[in-house]
Amino acid sequence: MTKKSGYESQKGFTLIELLLVIALLAISIGVTNDILISLIRSNNKTQVMNEIEQQSNFVSLKVEKELRNARAINNPVSGSSGTILSFSTRNGDTIEYEVLSGVIYRKLNSGNAIAVTSSASPGGVIVSCSNGVDSCFSTFGVNPQIVSINMDFTQAQPSAGRSYTGKVGIKSTIVVRNTY
Question: How many domains does the chain have?
Fold first, then answer.
Protein backbone atom coordinates (compact mmCIF):
# COMPACT_ATOMS: atom_id res chain seq x y z
CA MET A 1 0.00 0.00 0.00
CA THR A 2 1.41 3.29 -1.06
CA LYS A 3 1.03 6.32 1.01
CA LYS A 4 -0.31 9.48 -0.72
CA SER A 5 1.13 12.82 0.14
CA GLY A 6 -1.17 15.54 1.48
CA TYR A 7 -1.14 17.52 -1.76
CA GLU A 8 -2.31 14.67 -3.97
CA SER A 9 -5.39 13.92 -1.89
CA GLN A 10 -6.71 17.50 -1.82
CA LYS A 11 -9.32 18.47 -4.39
CA GLY A 12 -9.78 22.03 -5.76
CA PHE A 13 -8.94 24.43 -8.55
CA THR A 14 -5.53 25.20 -9.82
CA LEU A 15 -4.32 28.77 -10.15
CA ILE A 16 -4.52 28.59 -13.96
CA GLU A 17 -8.14 27.44 -13.84
CA LEU A 18 -9.02 30.26 -11.47
CA LEU A 19 -7.31 32.88 -13.68
CA LEU A 20 -9.09 31.51 -16.75
CA VAL A 21 -12.52 31.86 -15.07
CA ILE A 22 -11.71 35.44 -13.97
CA ALA A 23 -10.61 36.37 -17.51
CA LEU A 24 -13.81 34.92 -19.03
CA LEU A 25 -15.96 36.77 -16.49
CA ALA A 26 -14.14 40.05 -17.23
CA ILE A 27 -14.69 39.63 -20.98
CA SER A 28 -18.40 38.80 -20.59
CA ILE A 29 -18.96 41.75 -18.20
CA GLY A 30 -17.13 44.09 -20.61
CA VAL A 31 -19.26 43.00 -23.58
CA THR A 32 -22.46 43.28 -21.54
CA ASN A 33 -21.45 46.75 -20.34
CA ASP A 34 -20.86 47.94 -23.92
CA ILE A 35 -24.25 46.61 -24.99
CA LEU A 36 -26.03 48.32 -22.07
CA ILE A 37 -24.31 51.65 -22.70
CA SER A 38 -25.25 51.43 -26.38
CA LEU A 39 -28.89 50.73 -25.49
CA ILE A 40 -29.02 53.66 -23.05
CA ARG A 41 -27.55 56.06 -25.62
CA SER A 42 -29.98 54.83 -28.26
CA ASN A 43 -32.91 55.29 -25.88
CA ASN A 44 -31.77 58.83 -24.99
CA LYS A 45 -31.41 59.75 -28.67
CA THR A 46 -34.87 58.36 -29.42
CA GLN A 47 -36.47 60.31 -26.56
CA VAL A 48 -34.82 63.56 -27.65
CA MET A 49 -35.84 63.10 -31.29
CA ASN A 50 -39.42 62.23 -30.25
CA GLU A 51 -39.64 65.41 -28.16
CA ILE A 52 -38.26 67.58 -30.96
CA GLU A 53 -40.58 65.98 -33.55
CA GLN A 54 -43.57 66.36 -31.24
CA GLN A 55 -42.96 70.09 -30.74
CA SER A 56 -42.25 70.71 -34.42
CA ASN A 57 -45.39 68.81 -35.50
CA PHE A 58 -47.47 70.77 -32.98
CA VAL A 59 -46.22 74.11 -34.30
CA SER A 60 -46.59 73.06 -37.92
CA LEU A 61 -50.16 71.82 -37.51
CA LYS A 62 -51.23 74.83 -35.43
CA VAL A 63 -49.86 77.42 -37.85
CA GLU A 64 -51.10 75.51 -40.90
CA LYS A 65 -54.63 75.15 -39.55
CA GLU A 66 -54.91 78.84 -38.69
CA LEU A 67 -53.35 79.94 -41.98
CA ARG A 68 -55.62 77.82 -44.14
CA ASN A 69 -58.64 79.56 -42.62
CA ALA A 70 -57.15 83.06 -42.68
CA ARG A 71 -58.76 85.92 -44.58
CA ALA A 72 -55.56 87.78 -45.51
CA ILE A 73 -51.84 87.81 -44.80
CA ASN A 74 -50.78 91.13 -43.28
CA ASN A 75 -47.05 90.66 -42.72
CA PRO A 76 -44.77 89.82 -44.37
CA VAL A 77 -46.28 91.39 -47.47
CA SER A 78 -46.17 89.51 -50.76
CA GLY A 79 -42.65 88.84 -51.96
CA SER A 80 -41.02 89.57 -48.60
CA SER A 81 -39.89 87.42 -45.74
CA GLY A 82 -39.00 87.60 -42.07
CA THR A 83 -39.42 86.18 -38.59
CA ILE A 84 -42.92 87.61 -38.05
CA LEU A 85 -46.09 86.34 -39.72
CA SER A 86 -49.29 88.31 -39.20
CA PHE A 87 -52.67 87.43 -40.67
CA SER A 88 -56.35 88.20 -40.25
CA THR A 89 -58.89 85.49 -39.55
CA ARG A 90 -62.42 85.27 -40.95
CA ASN A 91 -63.92 86.51 -37.68
CA GLY A 92 -61.74 89.67 -37.71
CA ASP A 93 -59.03 88.61 -35.26
CA THR A 94 -55.37 89.29 -36.02
CA ILE A 95 -52.92 86.50 -35.21
CA GLU A 96 -49.18 87.05 -35.19
CA TYR A 97 -46.45 84.41 -34.97
CA GLU A 98 -42.90 85.53 -34.20
CA VAL A 99 -39.64 83.62 -33.90
CA LEU A 100 -37.62 85.45 -31.26
CA SER A 101 -34.53 84.20 -29.40
CA GLY A 102 -35.19 80.57 -30.31
CA VAL A 103 -38.84 80.55 -29.20
CA ILE A 104 -42.05 80.87 -31.24
CA TYR A 105 -44.58 83.33 -29.80
CA ARG A 106 -48.24 83.79 -30.73
CA LYS A 107 -50.19 87.02 -30.23
CA LEU A 108 -53.92 87.40 -30.62
CA ASN A 109 -55.22 90.91 -31.47
CA SER A 110 -51.94 92.57 -30.39
CA GLY A 111 -52.35 91.17 -26.88
CA ASN A 112 -49.73 89.47 -24.77
CA ALA A 113 -47.40 87.08 -26.55
CA ILE A 114 -47.77 83.45 -25.49
CA ALA A 115 -44.88 81.04 -26.07
CA VAL A 116 -45.86 78.17 -28.34
CA THR A 117 -42.52 76.40 -27.84
CA SER A 118 -40.19 76.29 -24.87
CA SER A 119 -36.41 76.34 -24.66
CA ALA A 120 -36.47 75.30 -21.00
CA SER A 121 -34.81 72.10 -19.89
CA PRO A 122 -35.67 69.23 -20.10
CA GLY A 123 -37.27 68.69 -23.46
CA GLY A 124 -36.98 72.23 -24.72
CA VAL A 125 -36.20 73.16 -28.30
CA ILE A 126 -34.51 76.07 -30.01
CA VAL A 127 -36.28 77.33 -33.12
CA SER A 128 -34.31 78.98 -35.89
CA CYS A 129 -34.90 79.86 -39.51
CA SER A 130 -33.65 77.19 -41.93
CA ASN A 131 -30.20 77.47 -43.49
CA GLY A 132 -29.19 80.24 -41.06
CA VAL A 133 -31.24 82.82 -42.99
CA ASP A 134 -33.35 85.36 -41.08
CA SER A 135 -36.44 84.28 -42.96
CA CYS A 136 -38.80 81.83 -41.29
CA PHE A 137 -41.90 83.05 -43.13
CA SER A 138 -42.16 84.08 -46.78
CA THR A 139 -45.24 85.04 -48.76
CA PHE A 140 -45.93 84.80 -52.47
CA GLY A 141 -48.78 85.77 -54.71
CA VAL A 142 -51.84 87.87 -54.23
CA ASN A 143 -54.68 85.72 -55.45
CA PRO A 144 -54.21 83.22 -53.79
CA GLN A 145 -51.74 84.16 -51.07
CA ILE A 146 -49.13 81.50 -50.36
CA VAL A 147 -47.01 81.27 -47.22
CA SER A 148 -43.75 79.34 -47.03
CA ILE A 149 -42.50 78.23 -43.59
CA ASN A 150 -38.85 77.23 -43.12
CA MET A 151 -37.81 76.47 -39.53
CA ASP A 152 -35.36 74.18 -37.78
CA PHE A 153 -35.96 72.72 -34.32
CA THR A 154 -32.93 71.59 -32.31
CA GLN A 155 -32.41 70.37 -28.76
CA ALA A 156 -32.13 73.27 -26.30
CA GLN A 157 -29.02 71.80 -24.64
CA PRO A 158 -26.39 71.38 -27.37
CA SER A 159 -23.64 70.84 -24.78
CA ALA A 160 -25.43 67.85 -23.24
CA GLY A 161 -23.56 65.35 -25.43
CA ARG A 162 -24.09 63.44 -28.63
CA SER A 163 -26.82 61.27 -27.12
CA TYR A 164 -29.00 64.29 -26.44
CA THR A 165 -28.88 66.07 -29.78
CA GLY A 166 -31.22 66.15 -32.72
CA LYS A 167 -32.64 68.39 -35.41
CA VAL A 168 -35.98 68.50 -37.21
CA GLY A 169 -36.81 70.88 -40.05
CA ILE A 170 -40.18 72.22 -41.10
CA LYS A 171 -40.45 73.19 -44.74
CA SER A 172 -44.05 73.81 -45.62
CA THR A 173 -46.00 75.78 -48.22
CA ILE A 174 -49.55 76.75 -47.33
CA VAL A 175 -52.21 78.25 -49.59
CA VAL A 176 -54.55 80.62 -47.77
CA ARG A 177 -57.97 79.33 -48.85
CA ASN A 178 -59.93 82.55 -48.46
CA THR A 179 -57.67 84.54 -50.82
CA TYR A 180 -58.74 82.91 -54.10
Answer: 1
pLDDT of 6 higher than 70: no
Residue 34 reports pLDDT greater than 80: yes
Label each residue of 3-62 as H, E or C: CCCHHHHCCCCCHHHHHHHHHHHHHHHHHHHHHHHHHHHHHHHHHHHHHHHHHHHHHHHH
pTM equals 0.74
Tell me: cis bond preceding 158? Omega within 30 of 0 counts. Answer: no
Q: Do the domain assignments include residue 26? A: yes
Average pLDDT on 145-164 reads: 80
> What pairs with residue 137 in β-bridges?
82, 149
Tell me whether residue 7 is in a domain: no
Q: Which helix (H) or strand (E) holds 174?
A: strand 167-175
50: left (phi over 0), alpha (psi -120 to 50) or beta: alpha
Domain containing 47 equals 15-179
- Taking the alpha carbons of 71, 74, 78, 83 in that order, is the dihedral positive or negative? negative
Please report whether residue 8 resides in a domain. Answer: no
